Amino acid sequence: MATVKNAAFDIVFTDVDGTLLDAEHRVIAQSCSVIQGLAPLDIPFVLVSARMPEGLYTIQNEIGFTGPLVCYSGAYVLDVQGNELLSKPIALDEALDLKAFLDTELPEVCCSEYGFHTWACDDDTDPRIMNEERITTLKATRAPLSEAFDEQGIHKFLLMGDPDQIAAAQERISTAYSNLTAVRSSETLCEIMRGDVTKSEGVHVLCDYLGVDIERAIAFGDGRNDIDMLRAVPRSYAMANAPAEVKDSAAGVTELSNDQNGLAVQLEQLLGMR
Q1: Residues 22, 150 within the same domain
Q2: How far apart are the C-alpha atoms of 233 and 221, rounded to whole Å?
Q3: Which residue among 128, 131, 179, 258 is least packed, with the fewest CB closer than 10 Å?
Q4: Does position 274 have pLDDT exceeding 60, yes or no?
Q5: Cα dihedral across residues 21, 255, 70, 39: positive or negative
Q6: At 226, is the secondary structure helix, strand, or coil?
Q7: What beta strand segments (E) does 68-227 contain?
Q8: Would the pTM count as exceeding 0.85?
Q9: For 84-128, what is each residue's pLDDT tens digit?
């Protein structure tokens, strides 16, 4: 990929919920033209998220751009054509063991399983599943894990519950499954992936694939699961709405929050449009 002259950066990596989207998980209309304006400059705009690919394609389509994706917090990386560049699934046997543990030891927690292009759950009438469907505009498949997935395994478990339940789940899973990572992406959500999965690896994979120096990258994030990415990219920005520990991990902080279109405003400043 050729270096873009007169631009301050050659690639953009951004988290989605709490960063690109507003607090209601909606695209801010004013951001679309800024993001669309990166394509003529040959600057990829990469969504880096715990979401599955289909949950990111809908955002790309709404904004009006295409680009590579870092899905499942780095466990599944795709190029702009949807070709797999990296895949780090949890082995099916281990996933089945963890699911049995969750069903027995943490029955009050709502569990979803994600792998490649499939989202499965036990009960799609659970209000927590229905709320996730509303946020992502996707539909979960009601099926046992053993039927929904094959030997390729799965990329992520998503646990939903009240803050105390999720805190307890994170602690118990981290103790019982030391080779997995349980990360609280919010007070009511916990995501479980392989222990070697990071957003920063997805960033490095795409920089290498596209021939972009990471020094010429910028990154945006707001959550604790963005910290490794913000630390890996020298020119990183935590959102104004991010917790203090996330802000401390980034090189800078946006002037405005996600609800105030802070990411697009920062891009405009870097492009000399403001």
Answers
A1: no
A2: 11
A3: 179
A4: no
A5: positive
A6: helix
A7: 69-71, 76-78, 84-87, 110-115, 118-121, 141-142, 156-160, 180-186, 189-194, 217-221
A8: yes
A9: 999 999 999 999 999 999 999 999 999 999 999 999 999 999 999
Q: What are the Cα distances from residue 141, in Å, to 133, 157, 221?
A: 11, 14, 30
Both 215 and 259 in one domain: the answer is yes
Which residue range(s) make up the domain with 210?
Answer: 11-87+198-270
Q: Are strands 252-253 and 141-142 parallel, antiparallel or unpaired?
A: unpaired
* Single-letter code of the amino acid located at 111: C
Beta strands in the chain (DSSP E): 11-14, 45-48, 69-71, 76-78, 84-87, 110-115, 118-121, 141-142, 156-160, 180-186, 189-194, 217-221, 235-238, 252-253
For 109, the 3-state DSSP assignment is coil
Q: Is the pLDDT of residue 1 over 70?
A: no
| Residue at a domain's end among 194, 219, 234 | 194
Of the candidates 268, 192, 224, 212, the one whose C-alpha atom is nearest the C-alpha of residue 18 is 224
pLDDT, tens digit, for every residue of 198-252? 999 999 999 999 999 999 999 999 998 899 999 999 999 999 999 999 999 999 9
Coil vs helix vs strand at 11 = strand
The answer to the question of residue 261 being in a domain is yes
Supply 9's token pair.
């950066």
Interhelix angle 53-63/29-36, rounded to 10 degrees, is: 90
pLDDT for the residue numbered 8: 84
Assigned token pair, 12: 């953009």
Place of tokens 């400059």: 41
